[in-house]
Amino acid sequence: MLFFRPSTKQSIKNTTQLIQSLLRITAWASAVATTVAYSTFASADSSVTHRGHGIAMHGEPKYPAGFKQFDYVNPNAPKGGSIKLAVNSSGGFDSLNPFIFKGVSAAGMGTYLYETLTQQSEDEAFTQYGLIADSIEWPEDRSWVIYHINPKARFHDGHAIDAEDVVYTFELLTQKGHPFYASYYKHVKKVEAISKDKVKFSFEPGDNRELALIVGQLPVLPKHYWQTHDFSKTTLVPPLGSGPYKISQVDPGRSITYQRVKEYWGKELNVNVGRYNFDQIHFDYYRDNTIALEAFKAGEYDFRLENTSRNWATAYTGPAVDKGQIIKESIRHYNPTGMQGFVMNSRRWPFTDPKVRQALAYAFDFEWTNKQLFYGSYTRNNSYFTNSELASSGLPTGEELKLLEPFRDQLPPELFTTEYQPPKTDGSGRIRGNLRTAIKLLKEAGWKIENKKLIETKSGKAFEFTILLASADFQRVVLPFTKNLEKLGIKADIRLMDTQQYVNQVRSYDFDMVVHTYSQSSSPGNEQHSFWHSSTVNTPSGRNLAGVNNPVVDQLVKLVISAPDRESLITRTRALDRVLLWNHYVIPHFHTQSFRVAYWNRFSKSDIAPRYALGFDNWWIDPVKQKALDQATGR
Questions:
Q1: Checking phi first, is residue 80 left (phi over 0); if not, alpha (psi -120 to 50) or beta?
Q2: Is the pLDDT of residue 107 over 50?
């Protein structure tokens, strides 16, 4: 669990952060799309071609050509100072190559070291603006896209970034990189450098509206560097990048430090004005969350994104908090909160049966858990797109019903007659009614109780499984669940593992049940294929952890990706959401609609908060606050 993530933006700008999050099983999802504020001209084949400074999912970008900076930054934010952040990871890190299957890479690699062709804004559902590319060109049918590279773009050694670097990167990542890249860019037919400053991506036929934009999220690697280094191996040698920071110091498994590049080529770009204000960013690794919290209160690091409700309710006390030296703040956001839950591996017996999966949900007492463990701070998940207009609700009607009707014979009948809601209790801890419902479902699925054990009638096998955990903090949530399962005659063991062991088992789908979050963006698209499509069931180190293998889901994923406008995207996403829910792949957990942060009172930030991100990289060290804090603490 990362105490600090610079942003929740759904972008391959943070591809390495995505993969790191994937390896920590916090999951992160990307999504994008197309349509641009544009000028038009006649191309060689006389078709209408668009060229613009930015690309939006639907309509036009918020920011016009020549805009000065994003609304949520302070263009006059002072540069300077050093900050310390923390990462909670039982296994630390063992690599500075975040692009491959091997190893666990260090925090911050994607955010600070590498640049991409485009940069996402944090106050639009999904819009990309030029970064390495200063303009984008595409035809009406979006069968290809050309990125025009900014002639000022440079790697840290001064070598110009050109189209050959983009082509080389694409081939390197899709052929030798983490399997995610091959899956995410599978519909790219051809990549070619048509000149030194123009790279063209051609796409397979179809209505995949995102492709013209998601290729812009590609992190661009230096060809001249990797041609003389072994990309397939983990390394602790700082690689060559092009971003606002360089790696200045590495203590393997313990810490990593980034230094701001004063000659950074992109510091005056409008997408970077007011951002990356700290001179130095240092990450320390902690193996225990409790120790990490105490270290924060002792001033060992500066900023903490709190993910534990008990800590949020009770732990931020003491003189530093009372005197205002530590600020505790909830910052509202409008991101879909996705789906966190107990994910059942439907590849494995007995989770192959959706009725069994449905039955187990009646053993999780959210209301008691929220009251007794979380101080009532959470809301139950009832959608894979909670906290957004993309979430399904009620019964399917109108266009959504028309969309689902052809699949009626392949879907649970309840989907058309009953609003989906996860099982509820009165919060007392007494859930006999729910357990009776669970037993009824299990009997219908061919199970019976013998000698206080749940036995499958057909095979005679007892119902036993293991829940894998990578965080000791979650044991207090899981233990009451296993006690309720025991009342059903089910033996559920908890296995707490270090990060690397956990990663390896989940990568190979060697698990029965895990706690996982399917993060979502405000503009779902190609990432849904990697989450749910049947073709990804056996993809090594893939994101289809639940093993979804459903022809209706396949069709709906295709429709989501090809949605021609926002209205149809919402309808299709709600239909996909509804089908996933009624197939019971996950026992839903809970969410909050705010970033819960605590920080030492040395920072300032813009009065305008980004709608879809925390935006910590837009903050700065305030000299007045820093001086007051130094005087108060004697630092």
A1: left
A2: yes
Contact 596, 374 (CB under 8 A): no
- What pLDDT sits at residue 126? 81
The CB-based long-range contact list for 255-259 (8 Å cut-off, 24+ gap) reads 255/282, 255/283, 255/284, 255/285, 256/93, 256/106, 256/107, 256/108, 256/282, 256/283, 257/281, 257/282, 257/283, 258/108, 258/112, 258/113, 258/282
* CA-wise closest residue to 10 among 523, 609, 383: 523
| Cβ pair 516, 27 in contact under 8 A | yes
Residue-range domains of the chain with CATH: 339-591 (3.10.105.10)
Position 294 pLDDT exceeds 70: yes
Q: Tell me how far apart the alpha carbons of residues 528 and 183 are, in angstroms, rounded to a whole number.
A: 11
Give the pair of three-digit tokens for residue 594: 């705010």
* Contact criterion met (CB below 8 Å) for 161 and 148: no
The pLDDT of residue 60 is 86
Strands 82-88, 280-286: pairing is parallel
Please give the average per-residue pLDDT across 118-143, as a whole number.
91
Are 507 and 540 in contact by the 8 Å Cβ rule? The answer is yes
pTM summary value: 0.76
Amino acid of residue 363? A
Residue 151: how many CB atoms within 10 A of its CB?
12
State phi, psi for 467 to the nearest 5 degrees.
-105, 120
Peptide bond into 350 cis (omega under 30): yes
Amino acid at 619: W
310-351 per-position pLDDT tens digit:
899 899 999 999 999 999 999 988 888 889 999 999 999 999
Cα(61)–Cα(405) distance, rounded to whole angstroms? Answer: 35
Give the whole-angstrom CA distance, residue 281 versus residue 256.
Answer: 8
